[in-house]
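User: Quick one: structure for sequence A, then sequence B.

Assistant: Sequence A:
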Amino acid sequence: MNDSNDLINLAGSCYKEMSCFSVMEVDFEHRCQLTMKVKHCNYIMNFFNYFEIMFCEIDIRSKLEERIITCLFGIIVIFLMIMIAHLVDKYIEPALKIISMKLYMSEYVAGVTLLSLGNSFADLIVNLMPIRDHAPLYTISLSNALAVILLSGGMICFLRPFKMNGHSVFRDLLFLMLAGEMTVYIIFTETKTTKLESISLALLYPIYLIIIFVDQNLLHEAIKTLYKQIDELQNEAYTHRRKGLIMAKLKKLHELEQETRIVVHNNSIIYRYNSSNLELYWRDYRKEMSNWEIRNIQKLDENITRNIFYNFNNPKNMFLFEEFLRALMPINIVDWKFSGWFHRTFLIIVSPIALFCVIFIPIVDYRQDKHGWSKLLNCTQIITNPLLCFVLIEAMYKNSYTKRYPVLSFANAKWTLWVTVPLAILVFVQSRTDRPPSYHIFFLTLTVCASMLFLIICATELEVLFCIIALVFHMTEDFVAACIRSMAGALADVIFNIHLTLHGYEKMAFAASLAAPIFLITVCIGIPCYFNAGVQRPESSHWAGP
């Protein structure tokens, strides 16, 4: 009897220590039982326990069935990437541009701060997730940074020619080299990584941001100095030398001012062909941009789009339900009418994702009529947005499953109704349908929080699915870390930056392509290593836990 109890205890301790990825090494008939007993399988999954779905729900019994299910997982990966692109297009990109304008940031500074943080914050969360506890974190982060620089930076330069500030680029490259050298030094100087070293590495990024803001202030001071010098020259007697100095300083002033502001571009951008006088109003990016150059970029007047339907004599709730139903339409009628069969197929595929997002995430976009305001829909989002966010965060934190699916609890989320319901009623009573209220910008809080949460969930699911696909094809851990995981982590950044480039914000996107790797190497390695006890043990063989 004692021997059997010892065997049970021994088996239980083995299940606690066993990695979920070792499930792939046993026969198919034993995988379901092993998946349900190994604690690590629940620990590394995010919203769905894919191993239990594969080997218990579907009951895979052969290699062919396993490959077919893997192909289905590949389709899910494509849908997740489409959702990332949709979140970037409709919600995150307009929100970041508005925040940059309100904070008076230049396009480059917005790229190295807001955009790079928005791109890489999901990677930080994934690095803190259980699936990365025993992963080669240094290899993943460095490969991810390399993928962002090469893929994102290369695509930006290919899609849109532009002039970048050489001093800023050189500064960012120096910081990138410093971050890489500091990381290598921490790894090879000792057999373990201490908490002090982890914090020192993570603090390099705030130092980088401080230098950027100091540099921006110095740029504003240089502009003020040029204004004074030009005023002094204007008061002098006219000479050819005075005229040349004024022209040179005006040219320099124009270049510096281009580096200190950001504008929201209108959708109609004019391009001129180099070899002729042909002019074309650009509707979409279907031409080779290497043969075109920007002739004029129209600055969007946010007051025009805000008040385009406003009339003081209109009722406050005019077309309330018509506007609500129109806002819920997942397919744009104009896009559908002027699209071919391929684009229409794409719109149909995206429509479930678009409908889900529009129900919960408010749109704040200066390019749209009324800045995307829909009175009834936005009032309901004041209630549903925080409720959904709390439910999803609690599900991710508890990491518990019922029949292979996550447990969604409203125990804590329901308390948000005490605040959101009265607030929604107040907004409904006070606001109008034909013009957004003056506090519409505060809806950006809901937009950014929900969009980033969905982005983190998509990035985590991509990580898990890529790992499972790699294991099915018997790829090594180093290969998966250097290629598959890094590609999964860089996909969101690449989609994000390419989309901005196509809309005329190539400087911001290129700046983020340089700043995001600095964040990946410093913060995305330093903070997880501070909380990961595995790398702090003596004789740790690699960057993550043993």
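Sequence B:
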Amino acid sequence: MQGKKKDSYSQSFLSLCTLQHLQTRREQRQLSLLGKNKETHLSLWAIDELVSPIASQTEFHFSKWSDQPEFMFALVYKITQDFIVGIEDILQPLIDRARLVSYSAKEAWVSAMILLISGFLAKRVFPSLADKYNEKTIKLEAMSSWLHLIDLIIAFDKRMQSLVTSESGFFLVESLRFEGFSKFWSVLLIFSDRPDWLKIWSKTELKDAVRKLREEVRSENSWLINKKQGIGIGSHKDSEQYVLSTTEDGKSPIIADFSLKIAWKMIERCENLPSTVLRVQFIRSTAGRFLRYFSDILVLRFNNSEVDPDDDEALMRLCGCINAASYCVSKLEDWSDEANFIEMKISESKSKKNVTEDAHNYSCFFWEEINNFAELETNWVMEVISVLLQQFETLSWDYLQNKELFQETRISGSMDVHVSGDIVEALDSLRSRLDVIKLGINPKDFLDLWRSVADGLDHFIFRSIFMNDVKFCDKGVEQFDADMRSLFLIFQPYCLRPEAFFPCIRDSLELLKMVKEERKHLLGLLSKNERRANCLRLYGILRVSDVEAETILRNRGFTV
């Protein structure tokens, strides 16, 4: 426009901006009297009027591209990009003259063009796709078209937002930049008034994610340990880098990382939904259900793998399931610490009137998923521990029932003391199983596992021998000490003082090794029934009770 035509348009534009400024001030005064605040809206009347004839002309082209929405987005983006410089250079000074504080011609132009295509999609495209989705014969085709359209919308939103964030966009007021992006600058605004469409979208996303996971699960290579882990935590915008924020020590299988990447991608796809409530609904319906589905797959794989301590491959499969559950717990805890998820959890908590969940758990967005994976991890570790202890009990049965082994009366020191033959197989099997498990399981769970195994063996051996009225002579004490030292050596690679994790056996050996005078003195103190526990502490006996100690001392014989 040149000359009078330009002056006339500028005057009309300025007049409309001035009118909007007066109306805005009037509304603010009215709301101020009521003690309310008016939300800042990025729409400019003058820009809306400028876009109105463009909408009429583009609708003709849109109607021909209902099955090719990519052309619609390309056209709208081209129009927006071609005029955005002129809009800012020519119209922004007029907006400033009208005293419309914090209003941007560039923002209003982009927002209006997004609303232009959103209106057509809501009126012509989405209703057609929704109808197709409800027809069983063409449901798969409708799902594919729906996902394709969402992909185009997300890419289009990013391109349109990039037009605003360039150059002067970096100096926008923070509240306008971020609230405006989510509320006015996304085609996903369509879903704010159509919960039925949001439900279809979430179902489609979930079915597509489950399909991808099923294909991946069929390959045994997906259950191998992910050697590429170890990438540091990056921006939440970079899904791959964010999801891979772990260490190689986690030993999680590839399938766990693959599943979390799918879940995170679904979360990212809804980040431009116009309200926190909608984002919560979408994530619960997609990523939340998908993670529960993945946990069911882990349960199925664990149950299909027999817990056979003699089968190295079976043990490695079980360790893979444990590692996957542990990895998911760690990553979901990291996600829940993100500001966006904290905000969503607060919003969700306020929207629920009757809250019955534990207050601590309820503060975490993924508390249900975390608890689910953590429970699986704990139960599976305990099941492996139980199998190891049962195998040790089976292999050491003859040893524990051989009371004569500890009642021999040969002179001490007459010959070297070797490990009892009846317990060698049990010790060797335990050592080899722990070595295999250590290679396959993550360090955190292995630490809990070997300590629990040690504690279980401590109680089992103590109850089986000392509480079974077994008599000990000098040679028997030496034999038992040699056998237990061999047991302690199995755990030597995992700690400096393995005997510290066998307190009952350690105390029993201390009592058995007492000389005759010490034994008589301690029995005398215990017989007085006064401060019996304190008497034991004086001799360094901390775990064995006074009754148990008295039983052990009375069953201790001496070689004549």
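The CA atoms of residues 150 and 192 lie 15 Å apart. The two ends are 122 Å apart (CA to CA).

User: Thanks, that's what I needed.
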